[in-house]
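dude i think i finally got it to work??
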Amino acid sequence: MNGLLTIGEFSRITHLSVKTLRRYHESGLLEPASVDDFSGYRYYDTHQVATAQIISRFRSMQMPEREVRAIVTTPDPDARARLITEHLTRLERQLDDTRSAVTALRRLLDPTPPTIEVRRILTERCSLAAVSEVVDASEALVWYSEAMAEIDATVSDVTGPPGGLYDNELFTEGRGVMTVYVPTSDAPSLNRIRPMTLHPKELAVTIHHGPHDDIDVTYGALGVYVETNGLAIAGPVREVYVVGPRDTDNSTLWRTEIGWPVFTATSTAP
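look at this
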């Protein structure tokens, strides 16, 4: 057919296989310009080359076909931009998750892993401005950011580094109470923020150095210390962000204090 490309010619130009082009036709993602009624041969217009390349690029970025179809068919540039941005955000999140997993695995597989230093301390009474809610573990990071931003926008008289309290159920059941706070002598009661008092507790504490990509490894090492020293966990884990993102963009300088409330476990004969 004059001015049109056979499926083979179109395949060579776009680097999309004939099989893929047939599948895209069947799914409605990229329909040929013309299909011969007698032979069933598919023919493509040269103007479709750019569209095919756009589809190929998005599919190489693991974008689902339904989203690619929405992008190439919508006439609204704002809607297209929104769909692309949403997908790029998911890719960035996946990349962050992969980077975190690689960092943790390298630390775990190190033949001479670094040891952690654990101290037993008794904390002092402390007044806080806090936000506390039951949260799904999958939403913990988003919830933390929003809650801490609310505190930052409201509390100005801060007397120490921020911190958090995380119920054991958050880890064991995937849902539990999260509390984020800043120490202050003048805590307001506004929106979600409430005054709170931290009472003295005995903690087994260690410092996690650097970004939180492998903080679970430090948690594991602290848990081993607790178990091997005959201690029992007596409440939510406490994190203090001694140096964190609000202090420096250099994540290698971050210092997070992890503390488990503990007491000496005793066993009795049955």
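The chain has a mean pLDDT of 87.
im so relieved honestly
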